[in-house]
Structures are given as C-alpha cells and as structure tokens.
Specification:
Blueprint: H1 8-18, H2 20-32, H3 47-59, E1 65-69, H4 76-90, E2 95-100, H5 103-118, H6 120-126, E3 139-141, E4 147-152, E5 173-178, H7 189-201, E6 214-218, H8 226-231, E7 240-243, H9 261-270, H10 272-279, E8 297-299, E9 307-313, E10 325-334, E11 340-350, H11 357-368, E12 375-381, H12 384-393, E13 400-404, H13 413-419, H14 421-425, E14 429-432, H15 436-445, H16 458-472, H17 479-506
Parallel strand pairs: 1-6, 1-7, 2-4, 2-5, 5-6, 8-14, 9-12, 11-14, 12-13
Antiparallel strand pairs: 3-4, 9-10, 10-11
Helix pairs in contact: 1-2, 2-4, 4-5, 9-10
Length: 507
C-alpha cells in the first residue's frame, strides 16, 4: 500500500498511465538495457518534453492532426513507437497503422512496439496480452481486439483501419506517418508526387472515425515535400504543428548530445541545403544555386601536384539544346593541413557529333600530356557514346581507363550534386588564375540547382566524378599508404636483422 491506500499494482499503473515520459523511462531500459535520456539543452526546453506534451494532447482527443518536424538522430521514432505502446496499455482495443518510407522500416518500428508489449512487466501491470497467433513483426493483435500494422508510404494500405467508429469521444487508435519520404527520393518530382497521391487517395481514407488522429513526424527534405503540402492549407485536414529547428534564434542547439552547436554552424556554412531542410526545418527553394562563386579558390601559382587524371562526360548529340560533351583535367595536391584538394587544370565543353569524339578527346589528352605531371587515368561515363569512346581508347598505352557507372545505387543527379556540396563549400576546389576554363567552369557551377531546373550540367557531372574519385572515394592517390607500407617493411627488416644477429651470437 502507499500514501493513497491504493494497492501498489494499481498505483504503479495509474502513475504510468498519467505520464508518457515516465512510461518511457520505465520500459525503454527494460527492453533495450539502456537508460532513456531526456535531453536537457542549454537555453531551450527539451524536445522530449515538447513532443510528449503534443502527443498527450492527441491521446486526450484535443489534437486530431499533428505534424512534428525535427532533425535526424533525435530519437523521434523511438518516442513515437513508445507512444503507441503507451496508448495500447490504456486502450488495448485500439487500431494503429504505422507507415514509413519502406515496409522494412515500418516493420522495424512495429517490431520494437511488440517487444515493449511482450515484456513481462508490461503484461503484468496493464493486463494486455498479444494474441498467441500473432507471429509477424508488422501485423499483430491483442486479445482485447487491438491491431498494429506496418505499411510503406509508397504502397497500398489496404484491408486495415486506423481507429474505429464509436459514439464515445475516446481514443480508438491512430494513423502514424513516420518519415514517409526517403531522403534520396525527395529530389525526384515523380517520387514526391507518388507519395502525395498515395497520401490523398489512400492514407487519408484510413481513419475510421471523426476523432481518429493522424500523426506525421519527419525531418524536412524538400520545399515541396509532403510536410509542405500538409502546411499549405490545401490539405483537407487542419494540422497542429511542432516545428523544432536545430538552432534557435539565440544559437542554442536542440540536441547537443547528438549534434553540437559548433557542428550545426559548420553544417550551415558548408552544407547549407541539407542544413536548411533537415536541421532548420525550412528547406531552401529547390531552384536556388547549390554552389557560390567564392567557394572556388583562384590560385596565381600552380600548387605542387601529386597526380593528375582526366574525366569525360559524353553527349548523345551535337544539338545546342542538349548537354555538351565535357572533358576535365584535374590535379590532386595537399594543403598545409595535410588535407587533399583538387586543382582543375583544364576543361573543355564541346558540341560535336559522336563520330568526332575520339579525335576531340585525343586532342584534349595531347594537351594534358604537356603538363609536367602526366595524367595517370581517364574516367568516362559508361553510356552509349561513352562506351564507344572507351572501346576506342582501350588500346592507348600508359593510360588507365575507368568506367563511370550511373546506377540507382549511386543516387539521383541531385543526390550526387548535394554530395559534393560540402566539399566545394570547404574550398577544396581551385582553378588557375586567368585561364579560359576557369570562368567557364565557375559560371557553370553557380547555375546548378537542387531541383534540376538548370539548363546544362555536363561540366558539373565532370566535377562530381573528379571529386568522387579523388576526394570522396580516394581511389587515386596512395602516397600515404605507400609511406605506411614502407615503414612497415623497414620495421620488419630491422626485426629480421636483429633476430639474425641474435642467432649468430648464440652460435
């Protein structure tokens, strides 16, 4: 018994039902063996408390449509999964739909919910049991008639309901939308439209009562993403919003244990597009330029080049309205900090028929061979004209050829351009002062946008391949590795000589 003369079992149940965060602090460690940490940022209220307060209003039928925007890594999916388990402890006959950008991700979250509900303490305190025939991670039921099912945001959500009809104003379940858009897909208008259409035509039809809520929690990814539609006033539902930028007006970090203030400022300066969307929850207009002219360094003197190479992006036709064929000659060098950087030694942008590509490339290659550091390798995109050029150049002696393959795994064009943005923003790309190609390349790069609204991107494709090979994958320069191997070899030789002398002395 306790001070209220309530049986301990009922007292604990009442306390847990009365506080969502207490429920999290109690059951999260039981399931994961890790403490549930409530954030305590400087100068700001904890995002755990803010989100908990909003979710509690949903559970009390005070909010019918809740949109939460918060940075990645904040534990938002854990909070939402724990909330579903908490609500099932209070209303075990509830029907939940858990929707994410992939079925696997949705199943991961519903499996976690199931783990919480299968915990012996949960079952003892709340008297809620999962049916013995509920074996699946993405679809299980309680003996009280509740159901939890996981779905993909891009696929059909059929044969399942969120909540149910009742004459009472009480909680009966919810439709949960947790990161409905995959980051790479956000740059594709077709993928965004597919998710929006599925939301309007399918997901909005799933709540089975006027008081059944929809909760959407996500990081912003694009100016025209699903969150933008929900806030536009065009949606049939009126959304209550919780928008949590990673840095507030005073410069305080939201989740300093995940991303510090210094890291966020660095990200804002060097990866502005990603910062604006995923961290500031205010995506930059997709038509805005990704790169700024001041990010490209102009050098009066050529740096000490370690190795040089060529890349080529070939066009299908010579028509002016299509991309041109582009060649780029780049040199890798070291900064005083020891970091590697790229110097763009030359670049051509030409519009010629495919049959003339060989002679043009050989002419470009001949010019490059005049440099004191001869090109080591040529990388050419493997497409129709590029395949032809690769086969023609295969017989050239002293030049390594690499095929550049564009696949679904390598990401969309926008994803590639965003991948090199922080490297360019870090001022690791330089050009020679006064060279004709310097103005050509810089003017080309500052027109590149995130929504593919720019006219041409042939030189940008070449720039990406240069950066990918030399600064991201780092498959070109092995000087440091050679030095390490040399040191290891010298060490082994010393050991061998020492042992040989010891053996000779013993004899």
């Amino acid at each position: 018994m306790n001070e209220f003369n309530i049986p301990e079992h009922e007292y604990l149940k009442t306390q847990l039902h009365g506080s969502f965060l207490l429920f999290c602090q109690t059951f999260f460690p039981l399931v994961t063996s890790r403490k549930f940490e409530i954030s305590n940022p400087t100068g700001r209220e904890s995002h755990h408390k803010i989100i908990s307060r909003a979710l509690t209003k949903v559970s009390d039928c005070e909010i019918n449509s809740l949109l939460i925007n918060i940075q990645p890594g904040s534990g938002k999916s854990v909070l939402l999964s724990m909330w579903v388990a908490w609500m099932m402890s209070r209303y075990p006959d509830s029907n939940f739909l858990y929707i994410a950008f992939s079925h696997d991700l949705a199943s991961k979250h519903t499996a976690f919910i199931k783990r919480v509900m299968e915990n012996s303490h949960y079952r003892t305190i709340f008297g809620v049991d999962i049916r013995s025939d509920s074996k699946a991670k993405d679809h299980f039921s309680t003996v009280q008639g509740g159901i939890i099912r996981g779905f993909s945001s891009g696929g059909p959500v059929t044969g399942a309901d969120g909540g149910f009809m009742t004459t009472e104003k009480r909680f009966t379940g919810a439709v949960i939308c947790d990161d409905m858009t995959k980051p790479d897909d956000a740059y594709s208008p077709a993928m965004r439209e597919n998710i929006l259409r599925n939301y309007r035509e399918t997901i909005l039809q799933r709540p089975r009562g006027p008081h059944v809520p929809i909760i959407c929690i996500a990081q912003r990814l694009h100016e025209d993403d699903i969150c933008a539609y929900m806030m536009s006033g065009k949606d049939e539902r009126k959304w209550d919003t919780v928008i949590l930028p990673s840095l507030d007006g005073a410069g305080n970090a939201l989740c300093p244990d995940v991303t510090t203030k210094e890291q966020l400022i660095e990200k804002r300066e060097k990866n502005s597009y990603t910062y604006g969307a995923q961290y500031n929850q205010d995506p930059l207009p997709p038509g805005g330029a990704l790169y700024k002219s001041h990010e490209f360094i102009i050098l009066d003197e050529e740096p000490d080049i370690l190795v040089t190479f060529l890349v080529a992006d070939t066009a299908e036709t010579s028509k002016s309205y299509n991309d041109a064929s582009a060649f780029m000659f780049a040199g890798l060098y070291k900064l005083e900090t020891g970091e590697l950087a790229l110097h763009i030694l030359d670049a051509w942008e030409i519009r010629v028929e495919p049959r003339d590509l060989e002679s043009q490339f050989k002419s470009f290659y001949a010019d490059c061979m005049l440099h004191r550091v001869k090109p080591k390798m040529a990388a050419i995109e493997k497409k129709s004209t590029g395949v032809t050029l690769l086969s023609i150049l295969d017989g050239m002696r002293g030049l390594e050829l690499r095929e550049v393959k564009r696949t679904r795994a390598s990401g969309s064009k926008t994803a590639r351009f965003l991948e090199m943005q922080p490297i360019i923003a870090s001022k690791l790309i330089s050009f020679p002062s006064g060279a004709k190609h310097t103005e050509l390349c810089v003017n080309h790069m500052i027109k590149i946008t995130a929504n593919d609204s720019h006219a041409h991107d042939d030189l940008a494709d070449c720039m990406y391949d240069c950066i990918k090979i030399a600064l991201i994958d780092k498959t070109l320069y092995t000087g440091d590795l050679d030095q390490r191997n040399k040191r290891v070899t010298q060490s082994l030789a010393r050991d061998f000589n020492r042992k040989s002398r010891a053996i000779a002395g013993a004899r």
